Structure formats: C-alpha cells, structure tokens
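Co-fold these.
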Amino acid sequence: MHHRDISLDVVLDIYTRVLRIRRFEEEVARLFRQGQLPGFVHLYIGEEAVAAGVCAALTNEDTIVSTHRGHGHVIAKGGDIKRMMAELFGKATGYCKGKGGSMHIADFGIGMLGAIGIVGGGLPIAVGAGLSAWYTGSDRVSVCFFGDGAANEGSFHESLNLASTLALPVIFVCENNQYGEFTPAANAMNITDIADRAVAYGIPGVVADGVDALEMHRITRAAVKRARAGGGPTLIEAKTHRRGSHAEGEEAFLGGQTYRDEAETAAAQANDPLLLLHTYVSEQDIAPAERLETLDADITRLVAEAVAAARNSPEPGIETVFEDLWL
Amino acid sequence: MPRKTYVAAIQEALAEEMRRDSRVFLIGEDVRIGVFPSTRGLHAEFGNQRVIDTPISELAVAGAGIGAAITGLRPIVDLMFGTFLYLAFDQIANQAGAMRYMYGGQTMAPLVFMAQNGAGSSAGHHHSQAVHQFFMNMPQIKVILPSTPYDGKGLLKSAIRDDNPVLFLHSLALGGKRGDVPAEEYLIPIGLADIKRAGRDVTICSAGPTVQTALDAAKILEGEGVDAEVIDLRSLSPWDKGTVLASVAKTGRFVAVDESFPTCSAASEWCATVAEEAFHQLRAPVQRVTNKDVPMPFSPVLEQAALPSAADVIAAVRETLA
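Predicted complex below.
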C-alpha cells in the first residue's frame, strides 16, 4: 500500500519511534528475565505502531495519558530512555525518582501526563486535559490510550459521554490487543468492533489496523484535525496484538496453564508492525539500508547506555520517602 | 457583623474565589441550578464556561477535575452527596492524592472536591452517610468539615487556593444555620482547630454537626458542675493534634464525638493519638461517641437514634469522671 499523503520524513520519524520502542522493550524483557528489575513490567512489543503513529500526529503541547502498558507511549511522545530505564530500576535518577516505577512514568515537560496503573483510570483524566484546552481556548488536543479491557469499565462510558456532551478535544485510542490480562477480548464482549460503541455517544468511531503505523498516523491526523477545529472527540480502535505476556514472568500466576493457541501467536508474529514498516521503508527507497542499520545500532547503543546509567545510578535516599508531598 | 446562613457563606466563598482567579471553575451535576443551594446564582454571574453542568458521572467528573488541575486549572468538583464519592473512589484514592508523589513531584493537583456530608434530612442510607473518615485514611487528601458559616467560608477559600487536592465536606443539617460572617475578606488556614467552648474538666473533640451536639452536652454538664472544653477540629486531614493534646494536658479527660460509623472512625484516630501521646496525662480511659454500627435508617426517630446524641456525649463524659 502507498502512503503518498505521508511525507518521507514523517515515515522515517515514525519508523524511528517504532524501533526505539522495540529495542527498549526487548532489553526490558531481558533485564526482567535476569531478575534485575523490581515489580512488574508489561511490554508493548507488537503494539508499537499504535503509539508511534498516533504520537507522530501530535505536537509537544498536545497531551497523552497512558496505561500500565505504557513504555511505548512515553517513548513515542519523545520521552528520555535513560530516565525511563532508571525509573524501571527504581533509581533516584528515574522520571519519578523511583516512586512510580514501570506503571507510573510521566513526563510533564513533553505532555505525557502519566501512566495509570488502574485499567480505565486514565480516561477521565484525559477528558480533564481536554476540558483544560477547551477552557483556555487552546488548540491542544488530549489523547487517551487504553486497552480493550478498559472499554468494559464504567469509566469508558462516563468519559466518552462526558467528552461528547461537552464537545471536548479528546482522542480516545483503544488498543485492542485481543486480551484483557488472560481473557480473550471476544469472551468479554459480544461485539466485534469496540469502535461501534462510538455510536452510543454520537461521536465518530473508526477501526484502524493497529499493526500499520502509517494507517494509525493517517487516522489520528484526521481525528486531531477535527478535535482542533472544535469538532469534539473521536474513538479510534486500533486492532493490534499483544505479542508476549500480560506481564513478564506471568508463568508464576498461571500455574502451568495456557491461554493462547500457538497458531494465533505465530500469525501475529508474522504480522509484525516493525517488519511491515521496514518493508515499506525499504521498498519505497525512503532510506538506504545502511542508514537503517546505523539507526538501529544507534538506538541499541542508546538503550545499552541507559541500562548502564541506571545500574550505576544511586538508590533513592531513604529521606526522599517524605518528599514530593503537600505543597 | 452580617449574619449569614452556612450555605450562603459557602456560596459567597465560591463567588469570591471565582472572581479573584479565572482558573477557578465549578463542575458537576446541576451546579447551575444549585441543588443545595451552595452553587446557586453562580451561573448567572460566570456563565457556561465556568459553571459547567455535567451528566451524572461522578467518576468521570472527578477525574476530569484532576486532568484539568494537572494541566493548569483550579477546578471545584461538586459531587453533591458524600455517598456519591464512593462512585468516584478510584479517581480520588488512586489518582488525585497520589499523583504528585507517584510522579516524583512533577505535578500538582490543585482541586477541591465538594460534597454534602452526613445525616439530618431523613433521606435514608444512600443520602445520609458521613464519609470523611474514608478520606482521612488516604494519604495526601486534605479533608475539611466546618461547623459554622464563618469557618465554612474561610476554609473553602483556603481550599480553593491550596495547591493540593482538598475534600470540602459541608453539612446539609447545618445548611440553614446562621452565624456571623465578616463583610471583609478573610481566610482560615487548613489544619487549625478552634476551641468553641473553653473548659477545665474534660476535652470534647468534634467536627461538623457534632460540634453542636458537644456544645449542647457541655451546657447540660455545666448544670452538673462539669466544665467541658469543646474543640471543633474544622480540618480532619491534616488535623490539629497540638490543640487537642494541649487541651488534654489541661483536662486529663478525652471524649471524641464523631458522625462516623464506629470502626476506624475519625474518633478512633483521635482517641488513638491521645492514648499514644498523652497517656500519662489521662485520668480516665478515652471515650468514643459515634454513629451506631448500623446503616442509616430513614425514620426521623430512628435516624436520631443512630446518630451521636448529646445524651451519648454526657454519658461518655460521666464515664471519664467516674
């Protein structure tokens, strides 16, 4: 498929975002397996096209709200990999000084208003960010990432309805990765497309191929344009696939049980967002192979440096447990 | 000094702060009409943009307030009845109070959640519960429960100017109560108690409607030769331990009067603190006077029976004197 409406620079930018997320997450998976990371990590591998395509349609001032599976959103919005990695290690140099961890990374300087660990918890907050833009007369838009699981929460209904009735500039991006924890999305709802629910709120609902970063970008661009013009919210359902586990090390919760069939996993692996974009970039001759290889090597080195820096960073001082309280 | 009702004083605080700061706005169900009517008349002055009616969606409205607060505004989220806060629990407990800390100090959430707290209108369990004790348990949520028009206005103005999330609870039972409210501007700092009646023999600690219960009891006790000191905490989180402990150091007796369900009530916290920090000054065990441990009943007679009464307070004071 051709994407002539997306400039080559933008394609390369999106490709870079996808690759940064992939290499970061692969490293996080390794670190977790080696027992180097405290807590839980939820990886975004297989879903990179969504965050990259969406965030490439936003400015620095536009805001996003993220989920427990949030690393990709931070990176796609322009987050600092070093501060992210340090936060995953719980170090003082992390984004949240070790108080948030993997599920609570935020970077207010780039409009990343925070990852929220509660499924559906971010939707109302994103509505508030949209309310803020509306109130101040700014043309800023607010994007909310959430999963298929969150679409079954009451907060989804309340938030979409509220944003619709007030005609707020909010873009609801549902990452339908086919699983709510271990339960197939199909077992948790009797409809095929979550986007259909938009009808109930009188807003546009669009199904997007969440594996295709450029399609994600194009659809988001239209929703952003509409929101900036005062046209109100859009619900975008990105059909994607969670490549790996719900949480790394999930075997510990499964007690030997399985919940996916291998054919499905194999099919998803073949339909890989990075591979798809790489093929397009190569076929369209957007960048020479050597340049892509250099890019990959640079990102890999950046991630390795982030790990080294995180390891060498100090633990938070015990006294900081009483910092960042009431102003 | 002008005499105003409790609810009029609250309305005045809202109007003054909205005039003072264009980032302050009011959002909630039927805030234009003003059900209680603490928000009545504000829409006429401030219009649709600053007095925002919403669908009945407590969770989303509370969260929208948070989202607006962390992006530079100062929302007042009116959730109407305290019991409706249960519907917004996730946003208040998981997000509002924790955000600043969780994100390493990158943000602040300067917003006020406002709701009516407690019983007194015979509205049954779903519209008659006091809920302050739940929020006292949550880190980094300030909780205010004023008992007079003067305190209500001064504390609400402070709450709106505060850079942190504040739960401002007002009492429907006190709505029509009149009191002196100065014409000139004033603020009351959050976290400062007020001694509503000075006394030597026993410390009675209270907040909101139980302040009057305590004062009624103190008057009767006076006839028996017992001189009770009545403390109105006004703020429940943070709360003024200093004033309470100083009073106990003087009286040696402590009775906590609180409209909460008894287990883990606000009174439990006050009593635990006094027992921990003033044990050697106590001449008698601490006493708790709370709601009875039942859902709130409808019948006016039963509702009164379920609430802490002056007779309950007098009985508790007598225990400390026995």
